[in-house]
Structures are given as C-alpha cells and as structure tokens.
Write a structure and sequence with these properties.
heterodimer; A: mainly alpha; 7 helices; about 70% helix; B: mainly alpha; 2 domains; two-stranded antiparallel sheet
C-alpha cells in the first residue's frame, strides 16, 4: 500500500515521505547484505562458508521490476525539472543512496560462491540498468553540486 | 499512532548523556507496543478488506514514519558487528558508549596550581601538603652538585705528589676525586 502511494504520487505523499521510504528501503537492503557477510564470517568451515546464500525473502518486494521503475522515475523526474530551483536535492540523494545499496548487494551477489546468487544477480542487473542512467546521474550530480544535502 | 510517531521524532540531546530515543524504543518493546501495531495492521483479515480499509489508507504514511524512526537509527554494520553477543542488547548499548569518557577512572584528576609568585604546577591532589612549597626556591639553593661535574672541575695533578713515589691505584683514584 505504501509503495502504491509513493509510486502513484498521491496527494498525501510528501517529499519527506518519499525520502523516508527510500532511506528505509536502503536500510533494509544494507541489513540483508550485512547479515549475509556476518553469516559468512561466522562460518569457520570453508565448505559451510561456500553454502551460505543471500536471504532475499525479507526484501523480495524491493527486487521487483516496479521498484526499479520507481527509482529510475524519481531520478529522471528530479533531473528533468524545468527550473533549477525545483530540483529537490534531498530526494535525489535518498534515491541515489537506495540505488547505491542496490549496486552493492548486486556486487556481493555476483561474487558469491552460490550459483543461485550469481544467477539472481545477472537477472537483476539486466532489469536494473538502462542505457541513459549514467547520463541522468551525471546531470543530477551537476545540479546537486551547488546544493547542500540536509 | 500519530502520538507514537511524534514521540519517536524527538531527537537525542547531545549535551545530556540520556539516550531518550533508545529508552523509548525499549519501553515500547516492554509494553508490547509493536505487537499492538502489528495486530492493528493485520486485523483486517483477507487482502480485499485490507485494501479497502480507509483508516489504514489514512495512516500508512504515519506507519512509514514510525518504521523509519524505529529502524534507521541503528546502522546494520553495528548490529552485525558483535555477532557472538546478543544483537538487541548490543544495539542499544552502542550509542550509550559513544558519549562515555574513555579515560580510565584509576587516573587522578589534574589541577593547575598557581602560587603567589605566579608559577604554575600541575597537581593531582588538592589537599596534598607538598603542594604548598612546590614552587618555592628554597630547595633549589640546596641542590646537590652531581659527582660527574665535580670530577671534571678538580685537577688530576697535585703539587705534593712526586714522580718517584709509587702509589697504589686506590690512592690514585682517591686523588682524582
């Protein structure tokens, strides 16, 4: 329900709620990644360490395709504002933090010993990246350069 | 829920050692407030009624803020840093330790003592009687001269020592002194 409200940009959803939503999602992804690393470090037996897999069930909804669309849409929306003063640097920063967390967990999954994790990372990478994401981020960094993140 | 949201928004006071936010979360867990929230969210039963619930639709953003203020104050790196210990207890202790002074309590405090002549001295006990005359010049006048400096000043050859006279090594050493 919260995702639908944020995705459809309903009137009751403010910029603060968007920021909170992105930061909470980033925290959940970071939590999953740290949990995987802690489980890997705690395993003393190398065979058991190879068997450790990512537990993506708590963040399964975050790995869906509409969620990637929401991230991309928000980034694109902030960059393509008509006026520079309408650019919301805090929303862009929160969205960028979520995007960074996606990249970090995909990097860890791609170098995992488990075959399932590597397959999942390849599938997610194919969904996540678009051709003009680098251009959008470059424009966003240019606009956010003179702003101050609160 | 709005009241809980407003209480969770209160930040910790940096000047005070009290960790208001963490203590409020502990209080919420103790009073089973989170269980009540979960029951309230899931009380609608099937999915169709859940979507149509107007009350939940009104409060979903409040719920988002409650979740944000509850979870994001704990960095995941710190939560899983002490995997062997109890994770929940460690989480609440981390912020508490940040403001505790690292100086060991076995060390004594430092006070700056200033005498009537204006000289300054670092002392550790306020009631120590030795602090009264630590800056006086009386002890410096009676300062003994070291033997190494005295031996350099004294001459090795004396007028009353003849060359034909054989002396023992102990006497030579005594003469050198």
């Amino acid at each position: 329900m919260i995702f639908d409200a944020v995705y459809k940009e309903e009137p009751r959803v403010t910029q603060k709620h968007k920021i909170y939503y992105f930061l909470l999602c980033a925290w959940a992804i970071d939590m999953t990644r740290c949990k995987y690393q802690a489980a890997k470090e705690s395993a003393t037996d190398p065979h058991v360490r190879c068997m450790v897999e990512f537990d993506l069930s708590p963040i399964a909804q975050l790995m869906q395709f509409p969620h990637f669309e929401l991230i991309y849409k928000t980034l694109y929306q902030e960059v393509t504002r008509e006026k520079k003063k309408d650019f919301k640097v805090n929303t862009f920063n929160a969205d960028l933090m979520l995007f960074t967390e996606y990249l970090r967990i995909l990097t860890d999954m791609s170098v995992s010993m488990s075959m399932n994790d590597r397959k999942n990372s390849n599938a997610l990478m194919a969904h996540m990246f678009r051709h003009d994401i680098a251009k959008v981020l470059k424009e966003g960094f240019y606009l956010a350069g003179s702003e101050e993140v609160i | 829920m709005v009241l809980i949201r407003n209480l969770l928004q209160i930040p910790n006071n940096d000047l005070d050692s009290a960790q208001l936010h963490e203590e409020f979360l502990v209080c919420m867990i103790r009073e089973e407030m989170f269980d009540s929230l979960l029951f309230f969210i899931q009380s609608e039963g099937n999915f169709g009624a859940y979507v149509e619930s107007k009350l939940l639709r009104k409060l979903d953003m409040v719920l988002l803020e409650i979740l944000f203020h509850t979870f994001t104050c704990f960095p995941p790196e710190k939560i899983f840093a002490g995997q062997k210990a109890n994770i929940g207890c460690d989480t609440f202790r981390f912020r508490r330790y940040e403001n505790v002074a690292t100086r060991n309590s076995r060390f004594q405090p430092n006070f700056q003592y200033k005498s009537s002549t204006g000289a300054k001295k670092i002392i550790h006990k306020l009631m120590d009687p030795r602090t009264v005359d630590v800056t006086s010049n009386v002890h410096q006048q009676k300062k003994p001269v070291s033997r190494a400096k005295a031996a350099k000043v004294q001459s090795l050859k004396h007028s009353y020592i003849e060359e034909n006279v054989t002396v023992s090594l102990s006497l030579v050493a005594a003469g050198c002194r």
